Amino acid sequence: DRMGRRCRRRVSRRRRRAGDDRVADVRSPGTACSAARLVGPAGRSRHRFFWFPNQSLAISPDGTEVAYVSANPGAPPERNTQLRVRSLASLAIRDLPGTFLAHQPFFSPDGQSVAFFTRNGELKKVALSGGTPVTLVEKIAASLWTNGVWLASGTIVFGGPGTAGLKQVPADGGSPTALTSVDVAQGEFVH
Q: I need a labelling partner for 21 at 20 to 30 A (CA). Which of 85, 120, 141, 142 fits?
């Protein structure tokens, strides 16, 4: 999209001016566009992630790992992004199988799983130890702009744009229920 192309050009110019093509945390003041790059082991392509303003990076509760959405250049549209995980103590990067088209990742309280939304309107979770992602909720409107948090009580709270308010669902799956409601009469427009 047009905003994405503008952001990538701006980030590229700033990176060239800084003379650093290895690691960058570039923020554009006054815009909703930022980019950063993680460096992987030699022989493996660099992984870029962007915010438009959707969140593409999550840090584990103990601060030892990051999960992020990475582009798969040259892949077909249904596989053009994927979740990857990296320990901050190592340069090794692990792909999380079955996480194509993922965005907005967030960790479980114990750091053993990652939940994420898909462009197809789903909320899913996957164990970091491997396995197939489990669909928790389907048909989430505007899932690209939806964010979530996994509570210690075993509940996932999520919400996005619009007047639907926040919803909650057990981390083991089930039907989402309303947690809050937006009071338009009071001037609220989102929670």
A: 85
